[in-house]
Amino acid sequence: LLDLSGVHQVTGTWMGSTTLPCTYVPSEGFTEQTLSWSVERDSSISTIFRRDASGDHILLSKFRGRVSVPKESPGNASLLIENLEMPDSGHYTCQVIWRSTDNSLITREVTTTVKVVKVAATKPIIRAGELGLTLPAGASTSLTCQASGSPPITYRWFRGTPAGKATFLTSGAELAWHSLRLSDSGMYFCEAENR
Asked: Where does the Ig-like domain lie (predicted)?
C-alpha cells in the first residue's frame, strides 16, 4: 500500500547541490508520524534529519544549513544537500513511519548511495548578445562566457592583439559594451577556471 520510491545512486558535484529522491503516495487512514534521513559512512550510522510532531531537526552539525526536506508537499520526503563536500559521499537512508487509524505503525525505508565528484571546468562557450557578432557602431552588446564543472567557476576575458598576444580585459562571465566603437572590432577570448 504505502511504498517509498527513490533511486539507487546519485552523483553530486563537489560544491554543488543534489537531491536524494524519496517519495510516496499519501493514502487515507495513514498519517506520517516521523520522517528521518540517516547516513552510513565507514560502518557507522548517524541520523542527519528528523521530522516529527515537534518540527524539523538537523542532528548532525556538519549538515546544518545545508540540508532540507520540502515542507508543503505531502508524500515528498526528498533530501536536498547543498554545498556538497567530499566526505558527504556515503549511503543515505530515508525512513518514514506512518500511523494507521487503528494505531498500528508502518515503517518503510529506501537507501541511496551518494558519490561526490570533483569536475574540472569544461572548455567554455561564448554566447553573443541578441544582435549577434556584427554590429553597428554605437550599439550596446555583450558576450557571455559559460562553462560547467564544480563551482565556483571564474571567468577572464582577453582580447587578441595584432602581434598574436592576448591582453587581459576583465574578470567575470560577461563582457559588455555600452556604445561600440569601430576600434572594438577584433578577436576576444574567454578563459574558465575552477579549483
From this structure: 16-111, 124-195
